[in-house]
Amino acid sequence: MTDELSSATRPILAIIDSNIIHGRIAFEGKPWEQISDHQSAGRVELYFPEVVLKELTRHRSDAIREVTKQNINKFKKALDELKRSKATFDPVDFDALDGLVDVHMNAEYVMGRLREAVAEVGGTILPAPNVDAEHLASAAICRQKPFKTNGEGVGDYLIWRTVVGIAQSHPNREIYFVSNNYKDFSVSAKVRDKPNADLAKDLPGECQFSILGTLGMLNTLLNNRRDASRPSPDATEKTLGESAPAQVESSPQWEYDESDTSALDALVAKACLDYLDTDVMYQEVADTSYDRSSGIEVVGNKYPREFQNATISYIEGDPATVTWQRDEDFDGTTIIGTATVEGQIEFEGYMFKSDLALADASPEIHVSNSDHNRHMAEVTFESEFIAELGLRIEANGGPEITELMSITVGVD
């Protein structure tokens, strides 16, 4: 019994992929706050492969300098407006400011900020692994995962070898790789929690390993631990209204009244909206024209395919639109189902300037910066959406959203 309890309460190991960080150089928002709290409580050890930080540094350095210079230009335009209103102020050397941005907001600056962010959440940076040249060459030539059919994938290979190193040095531990790049790491789109067969053979036999697609899934896992400080189902239900009965906690056999499901419906609706807020907002959108692209796949004829490097900047579900159904029922103790929710969504991204005629013709596309660089403009796209979510309901735990199954824009 003692061994069982210690196994259930010792910290799990979580390795974070770059797509979970979403290109940021500061880990902000509710999911990161919750992860940091769990880390402080000793429930999880967070690991960030150095390869991930270098990948983020490479992608973000130019973008950060560009955004900073755009903000300087906006400031300059604001000062020009003040000049026309006869305001007086000390002159600003904008050329010098641009030069300072180039000097100080470089790759070294971005890497430094990322290291600070890792430290703030209590994480550990894992150095790049020692790689067997023959193993690397064989995997690349044979196009074994995580290599793609075009031969790309050295970065993902190094990340995976870092994961394998953790598994080998921590036998009999629970290890989770947090990544939404299921195309290169998972069995399939439908089986995302298990590694591809090419990768699974690298893990030691006693390893307890799984893949989680979002930080929210990691938080849910940690919230369900025996040592987690969780509010009782009673407290959760009271936040939704005093009329909600504590039926989930009162009986391990969930035999709810088909004629009165209002309390359960409210809990499912809350779970759906919380999931959109913590696991969908700020996610990158997959570019289906590229095989290597990862992120959320958005469908619907209204979504502009000319959109580049899009992220979900805002999403809000309407609780009145939430519906759900039971797909499987395991002896009344666990229900597996599907939930749908509709609402409003906004994307931020880029379009080639040659495609901006599309923005002029569409009321849903707005140009926020027509001169991002020589070729690109910054745009936003707003639409209605409908999302289909995987649902799991435990008799003593309440509803939990397990995955985003699909999201469609342009709902009539």
Walk me through the structure.
This protein has 412 residues and is α/β, with parallel strands linked by helices. The chain is 39% helix and 24% strand. The chain is built from 15 helices and twelve strands. Strands 6, 7, 8, 9, 10, 11 and 12 form a seven-stranded mixed β-sheet that branches. Strands 3-2-1-4-5 form a five-stranded parallel β-sheet, sandwiched between helices. Helix 3 (30-40) packs across helix 11. The longest helix is centred in the first third of the chain and has 35 residues, at 50-84. 30% of the residues are buried.
Count of beta strands: 12
Order of helices and strands: HEHHEHHHEHHEHHEHHHHEEEEHEEE
* Poorly predicted tracts of residues: 1-5, 230-260
Count the helices. How many?
A: 15
> Structural class, judged by helices and strands?
alpha/beta
Name the beta content range: 15-25%
Mean of residue pLDDT values:
78
Q: Report on the biggest sheet.
A: 7 strands, mixed
Rg estimate, integer Å: 24 Å
